[in-house]
Amino acid sequence: MCGIYGAVAPGSRSGRAPGPPIVLERMGQALHHRGPDGHSLLFDAASGFGTERLRIVDLDPRADQPFVSPDGRLRLACNGEIYNAPELRRRYRDYPFVSRSDVETLLPLYLDRGVPGLAELDGMFGLALWDGVAERLILGRDRAGEKPLFYVRLGQEVWFASEVQALLGVPRLSRELDEVALAQFLALGYVLEPRTLFTAIRRVEAGTFLCFGTDGREQVVRYWDPSKLAAAGSPEPVADAVPHLRSLLETAVGKQVQADVPIGVFTSGGLDSSILAALTARTLGADRVHTYSARFTAASYDESAWSARVAARLGTRHVEVDCGEPALREAWTAVTDQLAEPLADPAILPVYLLARAARREVKVILSGEGADELFGGYPTYLGHRLAPWLLRLPVPLRRVLSASLDRLPASGRKVTIEYLLKRFLAEIDRPWAERHLCWFGTGLVRDRAGWERAGLDALLAAAGPDPAGALLLDYQTYLRDGLLVKVDRATMLQSVEARAPYLDRDVTAFALALPIEEKIRGLTGKRVLKRAARAWLPRAVVERRKRGLSVPVAGWINHGLGPEVDRLLAPERLRRQELLDAGSIGRLLAEHRAGRANHARPLWAALVLERWLERWLPERA
Predict the structure, then answer these.
(1) Mean pLDDT value across residues 51-65
(2) CB 538, CB 528: distance < 8 Å
(3) Which is it for strands 263-266 and 150-154: parallel, antiparallel or unpaired?
(4) pLDDT-based confidence at 20, cuts 50/70/90?
(5) Sheet strands side by side (includes 263-266)
(6) What is the pLDDT of residues 460-484, one digit of tens each?
(7) Hey, which residues does 77 pair with through a beta bridge?
(8) What was the pLDDT predicted at 393?
(9) What residues contact 517, with CB distance under 8 A and at least 6 apart?
(10) CA 323: distance to chain centroid?
(11) What's the mean pLDDT when you consider all of the chain?
């Protein structure tokens, strides 16, 4: 694991790498939190490659990157972990490896099979490979998008880095705001790949390799298409699904706990994280496993008691991490000051605090991202199942129900039935894909015109039938561009590597192809995962209602963060910028503070955007 960065000029006639070395040095400084254990820069006639390394596999400095092939043809920098590296070492046993690094195995694989061979990689990665003979730069990312990679085109030059802020110092880079990306953020709370909020900076798409050659063109090689896997269906008989899933999960965890440093697990006491904790303890021994859970002052948000019970049953070395308001305020300041990507998911704050606590004992954390999208865990999927039944009721009766709910007082508690029902009924008349965006979105954009500005109309048109289409949509949007961004950035700010066993190549392929009835039946989600979990966990944990990691933002907006909210969402400020409607934001804030409605979600998105503008685009703030 590391932060990677660099610049190349394929076909350059200058005979030197683009940009002065000091620019790459500063890029490395901007990424130092991703890899504080080792720093390396390597230049040749047309390229400059750098890495900031977090040593996890082979702790010797000889395993520091960038790697160079024996003939000097290839330069390689890779952020992530390659889980099938042992198999590749056996295949290329005659290659003169200089380390035990998993990343070094990419060199003989590419020399043997070229870009198509890289599709064999099993792992999470953002990689850059320079082929000096072909004068070709290859940038690539893993299937789900666990590891990030961004790039900039400036004429013949291509600059790349693991995080956006490392690219902001590139000479001649424009900081023009991408209006479509802004519309996406306002609708969803995150930006869809390949865009960022800066027009000039783009993301390498998940499941692709991007090739730059001397002709100046970009060639996209897509090696992973979840839509095709979902459409193909499962070759496994349904009767064999549960034992097969158990085997896949045990294998996935076994691969992902391989490291030369201690391992931990983020836990909530819920199904997904408890499975990971149980399998990690079985694989490594409970006394070698550290578990971490968030402790909130607000009782409805606090799941630490459940986490402690699971940890006690498994025998792990458990730590509860304070996520009270003072700690969350520290996290808010650190995250917004250091990350040049706005993300309107307040859960990034407790993840940052969990990583800060974990860093005292471990360098690797297992986390449960992907389980909900692959196996049907969100309440919204059940909402889609209920929608046809409710739509059969007479319209006047539905209006009475909605009006009755609106008269209920707003609650700042975590995911109350009142809150869910209000959101459910407010959007029930929409087509399912529009309804889904409203349920999952920020609430700042609720009309088709806004979605068209965000380029979401094509996404809506391509969505398959619900609820299977909803799971796939979330895998390709919310998970990839929201949740995985949150976990990677929050943990790497504390130099901790997060791994997601549910996103293992084989687990994901199995889940995508599985019939929807095996995931959601009636009003029960994660059906096959729950049946598989009975071999490892008690029934109370398996059947516990999903709650999810969240933050008591509703009360925080009114009290502890009030002065910051008033400053950043001041009407005169918003009117000057002409990015958010000052009247609408003012109305939302007034209703929220009066207790007439819970507008925490849209207000938080507006607050995050305004803080991002202040820190990273002050000329528009």
Answers:
(1) 93
(2) no
(3) unpaired
(4) confident
(5) 317-322, 289-295, 263-266, 364-366, 497-499
(6) 777 777 788 999 999 999 999 999 9
(7) 128
(8) 80
(9) 527
(10) 21
(11) 91
Token pair belonging to 243: 């034992």
Q: At what angle do helices 241-256 and 505-513 cross, to 10 degrees?
A: 160
Contacts of 618 (CB under 8 A, 6+ apart): none
Residue 61 Cα to chain centre, angstroms:
29
Burial of 456 (0-12, 13-18, 19+ CB in 10 A): buried
Phi, psi of 221 (to 5 degrees): -110, 105
- Report CA-CA distances (Å) from 592 to 345, 488, 606: 19, 32, 14
d(CA 479, CA 477): 6
- Give φ, ψ of 251 to 5 degrees: -65, -45
130 burial level (CB within 10 Å; 0-12, 13-18, 19+): buried
DSSP E strands in 17-112: the ranges are 38-43, 47-53, 67-68, 74-82
Per-residue pLDDT of 88-140, as tens digits, reads 999 999 999 999 999 999 999 999 999 999 999 999 999 999 999 999 999 99
Q: How far apart are CA 304 and CA 155, in angstroms?
A: 53
Nearest residue to 140 (alpha-carbon basis) of 97, 228, 77, 72: 77
Judge if the upstream peptide bond of residue 538 is cis by omega within 30 degrees of 0: no
In angstroms, the CA 54 to CA 65 distance is 10
Tens of pLDDT, residues 496-541: 999 999 999 999 999 999 999 999 998 889 999 999 999 999 999 9
Q: What is the pLDDT of residue 531?
A: 96
Rounded CA separation 529/278 (Å): 14
> Higher pLDDT residue, 414 or 163?
163
Tokens of 110: 């590419």
DSSP state of 551: -
CB 10 within 8 A of CB 214: yes
Cis peptide before 66 (omega within 30 of 0): yes
> Is residue 534 classed exposed, middle or buried when 0-12, 13-18 and 19+ CB atoms within 10 A define those classes?
middle
Q: What is the CA radius of gyration of the chain?
A: 24
Task: Report the DSSP beta bridge partners of residue 131.
Answer: 74, 136
CA 433-372-491 angle, 5° bins: 115
What does the longest C-alpha to C-alpha distance in the chain come to? Answer: 77
Q: Is 483 helix (H, G, I), strand (E, B) or coil?
A: helix
Cα torsion angle, 111, 117, 123, 128, sign: positive
Q: Count CB neighbours of 388 within 10 A.
A: 11
